[in-house]
Design goal:
Blueprint lengths: L1 H22 L7 H25 L5 H7 L8 H11 L11 H19 L6
Helix pairs in contact: 1-2
Length: 122
């Protein structure tokens, strides 16, 4: 806001100086100068409104926390428990341990070794 007022003031000053050079101090302000004067007045009014609003008390953090909308909990969790009771939970698939896998592999190798020793019959 301050930059806009300052820019307007500079433009107004230029317009006033050009009027002084051409027509003298007694000449009436031009339309452009009148528009700049009106715009400057409106900008200052807006600035004053904003300053007055800034001085108004603001809600504290506690007020904002209390005012935040939090919907009430619904009965869905209860219905969910009932639906879980209706369905039986699946048991996890039985998995073999590392030791069981190694033992099975060793047994397979041993069986392969024994089967190769059988005499060949014709």
């Amino acid at each position: 806001m301050a930059k806009r007022i300052a820019a307007n003031g500079q433009a107004l000053h230029r317009a006033m100086m050009s009027r002084m050079e051409t027509g003298g101090a007694n000449a009436q302000p031009s339309e452009a100068e009148s528009a700049l004067i009106e715009e400057r007045r409106l900008l200052k009014e807006e600035r004053d409104k904003r300053r007055a609003q800034a001085l108004q008390p603001r809600p504290s953090a506690l007020d904002r926390l209390v005012r935040t909308h939090r919907p009430e909990a619904k009965d869905k969790p209860k219905a969910r428990k009932e639906s879980q009771e209706a369905h039986e939970t699946k048991k996890p698939k039985p998995r073999r341990t590392r030791a069981e896998k190694h033992a099975e592999k060793a047994a397979a190798l041993e069986a392969a070794r024994r089967s190769a020793k059988k005499p060949a019959t014709k």
